Prior knowledge:
Blueprint (H helix, E strand, L loop, with lengths): L30 E12 L2 E9 L10 E2 L2 E3 L11 E2 L6 H18 L2 E2 L1 E2 L17 H9 L1 E4 L4 E7 L8 E9 L3 E2 L8 E8 L2 H4 L4 H15 L7 E6 L2 E6 L6
Parallel strand pairs: 1-10, 5-8, 9-13
Antiparallel strand pairs: 1-2, 1-4, 2-3, 2-12, 6-11, 7-8, 9-10, 13-14
Amino acid sequence: MPHSGAMNDASIKPPAAPLAGPPPERVVRPRDAASLILLRGRRDDLEVLVGRRSLKARFMPGVYVFPGGAIDPPDRVAWSVESGAESLPPRLARAARAAIRETWEEVGVLVGKPAEAPLPDARLPNTPPRTAIERAFRERGVAAAFDRLTYVGRAITPSHSFRRFNTRFFVGDAESVFGEPSASDELEDAGWRQIEQSMLDGFRDVTRFMLARAVAMRRGTASGAAPLFYWAKNARRIGICREALD
C-alpha cells in the first residue's frame, strides 16, 4: 500500500476470475408415487407379492419391487367404485388410488372387498365408467376398499438420482386380493414369494425397510409414527412422515 497520496486506477487490481469447473448438477424434483405391499400367510410364514422390473426399464432395471408407480392426475378424482376413502387424508387417498390402480395394471389383481350393493353395469350407456380401473372393479363386482389398506410410510429417492420418486407405501392382506397375479411389460416374474433372506438380499434398502415395517405392523410389533425414509449428505436418514398426521 502506498504511504501517501491517493490510489490511482493502475494500483487497483481486478478480482481474480473464479476457476472454471463443471456446472452444478440440476437436482431432479421427485414425482409423487405410491406402492402396495401385499402379504399373505401365517405370522412366521409370510409371502409378499413382488415382481421384477424389466431390464429395459430406466429406473431400477432387473430389480424386484412391490407393484406401484407415479400418481397420475385422474387419481385425484374419487372413483364410483371406492369405499372407505374418508379413512385417509386427501393426499393419502390419492396415493391409495394410484397404488391400487398400478397393482392392477402391473400384476392384474384387484384390491378391495365384495360390493355391498350391485355396482352400475359398466356396459350400460348411461353409466359409463370414467376409467379402466373402475370398469375392472364393476365387472368383478368388487369395491375398492381403502379402509383395508394401512399406511406404512414414505420414501424419497436420493437427490443425485436422475429419476426421483416421492413414494407412499401401503400394506394390505391377501384376503382383499381378487385374481391371480400375472406378469406384465412393467413387472416380470410377478407372484407371491416367501419372505426369506435370499429374497431380501436382492431388494434395495428402501424395499427391505418398508417390508420390515409392514411385517411388524401385521404382527403388532411396530412402534412409533409412520417413517420417512430419505437421504441427506449421501447418508440414509429416517424421520417422521407428517402426512400421516394430517
